[in-house]
UniProtKB/TrEMBL annotation:
Keywords: Monooxygenase, Oxidoreductase. It comes from the Bacteria. PANTHER family: MONOOXYGENASE YDHR-RELATED, PTHR39169. It holds the Pfam family ydhR. This is Monooxygenase. It comes from Pricia mediterranea.
Length: 100
């Protein structure tokens, strides 16, 4: 069953187009992760936070990715990384026009 994963962390560096340019290879690599379906990249310059909302095909694949991604972010110097995984209520999400 598909799941949604939310990740955020304090971020004070680059934003917008500059972030897109510098993170392009990372964005492309994420699409090759087992079970990956999609990702919305999130950023808030005002709150100095970055992260994303992901959809994976299973909790197992999301758990594996979250563990690897949290380690990678820590290696990049980030801390206070928060990640949560949620099951999806397909019926209500379909009514809400979720991008399945």
């Amino acid at each position: 069953m598909a799941v949604i994963m939310y990740v955020d962390f304090p971020h004070k560096k680059i934003w917008g187009k500059e972030m897109a340019n510098q993170m392009k290879e990372l964005a492309q690599s994420i699409t090759k992760e087992p079970g990956f379906i999609w990702k919305f990249w999130t950023e808030s310059k005002k709150e100095e936070m970055a992260g994303g909302v992901y959809m994976f095909d299973s909790r197992e694949n999301a758990d594996q990715y979250l563990k690897m991604h949290s380690q990678r972010l820590a290696e990049f110097g980030y801390s206070d990384i928060r990640g949560k995984i949620f099951e999806i209520n397909n019926e209500l999400s379909t009514i809400g026009k979720a991008p399945f």
